[in-house]
Please model this.
Amino acid sequence: MSVIPIQQHPSPNFNDRRNGDHVTILVLHYTGMQSGEAALERLCDPAAEVSAHYLVEEDGRIFQLVDELKRAWHAGVGYWRGERDINSRSIGIEIVNPGHEFGYRAFPEAQMKAVEVLAAEIVTRHSIAPINVIGHSDLAPLRKEDPGELFDWARLARQGVGIWGPADKKADPTMAEFLADLEAIGYDMEDEPSVIVAFQRHWAPRQLHMGGNLATRQAARGLVNSLLT
Ligand SMILES: [Zn+2]
Model:
């Protein structure tokens, strides 16, 4: 049960989780459409064959579309820390934002507050490990950019949702060590340049598109250090 108000808005787009699978991952998305209403409609349209467990509007309203026990269709083809059927293993939250295609903008305070509280409840309910609170772009770096570099992951981490740095300012990892760090964090290393961008969107947003520069390498090393402690 939740302590926050959640409106039920059922979607037909779900099926059973793979036999025996339980939830170990929380995936955050942005809707990437011109309005929240349009996104809600699409996520409930049987022809679209997409969904998520929750949608959070810019004004902070939360809609539940799919029961947490069921397998919503939000992740698609992807990989994270050994897992490929991400939908069977995850809860998906869609956060209303036009996205990079239609005018990417800051996530309003009311929306962030709602995401923060909802995500904290989910992480607690399912005992989700901090490193398994990820963006869509983390599990599909070649295809996806959401929720993007404006999303405040550090704020969520301060509330106990996900993991954040600190960067290891003393480290100077080689490129090979940096790539090994990214793999240890959980990425599929099939396309290295896109993995570096995905890492920056989540854990080093000020370094976005700067390649494997020192600050990015130190951020990755810092994250690996946190995982080991
Ligand atoms: Zn997405």
